[in-house]
Amino acid sequence: MDIRMLGEGEQPPMELMLNADPSKQLVEGYLQRGTSYVAIDSGEIVGVYVLLPTRPATVELVNVSVREEHQGKGIGKQLVRHAVRQAKEEGYQTIEVGTGNSSVDQLALYQKCGFRMVGIDRDFFLRHYEEPLFENGIQVTDMVRLSQDL
User: Fold this and answer.
1) Mean pLDDT computed over every residue of the chain
2) How many Å from the N-terminal Cα to the C-terminal Cα in the chain?
3) What is the pTM of this model?
4) How many Cβ atoms from other residues are within 10 Å of residue 74's Cβ?
5) Nearest-angstrom CA–CA distance, 34 and 36
6) Do 94 and 58 meet the contact criterion of CB atoms below 8 Å apart?
7) What is the DSSP string of 66-122?
8) What is the DSSP letter of 10?
9) pLDDT on residue 130
10) pLDDT tens digits for 98-148?
11) Which residue among 37, 38, 67, 114 has its CA within the 20 to 30 Å range from the CA of 60?
């Protein structure tokens, strides 16, 4: 598997990205402001993430997504580790990530990759999404914020 920056003029894997964030408006917004990376396996895009500069020396990892049929193979971990290395190479001092309060697998993944919880953005998903979101049988209401010093 190879992870590379999405080429100029190359279409982002929108269907895959909307699996991680169902708001097309939010996805399009950070596609314009961030840098997208894709994981390629046998010529097929199987994963994606975006690095989004937020503040001086800080970048946010957003929209980490792996095709459903490729989940459970360590691709998500490879994407997150690649993002951390990429952020460090680009000179950032901190990388942040946010996920839903009910995103148990994602919370475990980020912590296994060295992220630590730093806060909760209460009612984030209620404020930013028209439709209620559910994961693991729990309504997604709050954004759990994690970060890692580089």
Assistant:
1) 95
2) 25
3) 0.93
4) 12
5) 7
6) yes
7) E-GGGTTSSHHHHHHHHHHHHHHHTT-SEEEEEEETT-HHHHHHHHHTT-EEEEEET
8) P
9) 87
10) 999 999 999 999 999 999 999 999 999 999 888 899 998 999 999 999 999
11) 67
